[in-house]
Structures are given as structure tokens and as C-alpha cells.
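agent: user wants the structure for Glycosyltransferase family 2 protein from Flavobacterium procerum. delegating to structure tool.
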Amino acid sequence: MKISGLVITFNEEKNIGKCIDALFKVCEEVIIVDSFSKDRTVEIAKEKGAIVVEQAFLGDGPQRTHGLPYCKNDWILNLDADEFLDKDAEQFILNGKYLEGNYDAFSFRVKNFLADKLIDFSGWYPDHKVRFFNKQTAHPSEAKVHQKIITQNEKKVAVHILHYGWDSLDQIIAKKNQYSGWHAQQLFDQGKRVNAFKPVLNGTVAFVRCYFFKKGVFNGIDGLSIAMIQAFFSYMKYAKLLKLQKQK
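agent: tool returned. relaying C-alpha cells verbatim.
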């Protein structure tokens, strides 16, 4: 069964070459949906043999959906540019394990890395994501941030995606701050409303869960830092939503 690789990009010249090389190990074709990158992302993608489609950013889910008609195969491996299949996931696909049973999507475990350090605490592992699905019956949601794949019959499998998303804590904080704004706008558009206690309450709960219940406390300064970043994200998401309410 042939597979199409699908990646959405914006200024990913650092990762896109390695990502495409990795995808071609299991995919017949690779489709890049690029949001008019300012760096060499498009040039590198074409050099590597990928098909590039340019589209102004529509949001996480809609951008991925936009790329599906360009994929000629039903099975889609939809990674981010900083994600790679681990050896066990490669073998799962190459050996045709996904054809066993009537499943239309597979959720893989994600190993998140800070530089070269695996973050396997504070709830960051196992972080399950559906990145492999059949477009005939499964598809990305319309969520503009952290979309999910809508499926009819999903299966979780104990194989892995390697996610090299950040080189420093500064990058994690910046990305979480960006995501908090997108989440707040999405919640506001959905009609979600909160009171003034919600940001503090959710930020506190996020910290306690990550630091104590998800074993951040056993991982020194890194465990404390990740728990505080999760608390920051949760707090800012609802603080920004509260601000949108007041502005209206």
C-alpha cells in the first residue's frame, strides 16, 4: 500500500531536508504545504524531491486539510517538520502492520526532546498523536491550533515519533506563549467564557499535576522548569481569553 507524506511548513530550513529524507523511507511522495516561508524551506524541499504547494496559513487543521487533495494516496503520514519516525514506527509501516484490522488512523507515542535531552516527565511522555491515517474515512479537524484527526476507528500503538521541537527553554516559552494566544482566540470564537479566577486556578492545577503527579519533582531543575512552563501556558491561555471578553 503506497503512502503520501504531508508536512505544513513556515521557515523550516533547519529541519525540512532531514524531515523529507526520513519520509521518503516509507512514503512514495511528499507534499509540502508552505505558508510563504522567508527562508530556504521551499528551495530545499524541491531539491529533495517534494511537491510544494504554497498557501497562506489557514490554521493548523485547515492547512493540513488543504494539502490532502494533492496527496494521490489514501494513507497519509502527516508529520511536522521537526518530527521523525523512530525505528519502531518505520518498521510498523514498512511491515504493513497498519493493514491488520479495520483501522483508519493510528496514534503513535511521541518522544519530546529539549535539544538532545528526552523529556519523559511532567506529562510529556507518552504524548500520543495521530499522525498516520486514511483520508477516505479520517481527516484533520478544523481547529486552528493543536488540531486532532477525526477518525472512525483509531488504534494506539506503542511505536514512536521523535520530536525535536526546541533547542532551549526560551524557545519553549515563546512557542507556548504563541499557542496560548491562538488557543484563547479559538475558545473565544467557540463561545467559551470564563471568570477572573479561571487563569489562576488552571495555572495552579497545571503546575501541581505536572510537578507532583507527573513526576517533575524527581527531575531536578528541568522538572521544575517544565512544570512552571505548563502552568504559564495554562494561565496565559485563559488570561488572554478573559482579555478578549473584556475587549468585546
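agent: one observation worth passing along. The radius of gyration is 19 Å.
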